[in-house]
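Sample entry (148 residues):
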Amino acid sequence: MKKVFISPPNSLILYDLVERLGHKPLAMMSEVADRVRGPGLDSPPFNLSSGDLQRALKYCPIEVPSGVRGRLAMLASLIEEAEAAIIVEDPDVAFGCSGCARTEAYVKYLLRRRKIPILYIRYPRSREEAVAFVKSIKRFLSELEGRD
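Predicted structure, serialized as tokens:
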């Protein structure tokens, strides 16, 4: 079982597919849930701590817009933990929030820099493409099992 970063990071479809195929999806929803359900819940509840934002500074300068820095603060631990990644290119808006374009580009760069296996796959626009989409993901994930 590999830890697979998914992009868009809150895609329920990718999350479910990766999980069904026996791997651990690394997704934004899990990260937020851990923070909100964990002990020491702030009042009001905050998704980010000052430590998270400091961790984000490891990846980007202070001048980066706060939205990018905030997203990277949430995604940093997932990127560090990832053993593989699936990145859906040009996703439909309903497939999962892609955040801002700058964060998305930066996340791709950070994942490439880690030199982990990455599947770049175009979002399907037809039934045939959807079938090929799922098959490509299944093939990628099954090939991961052979790598160690």
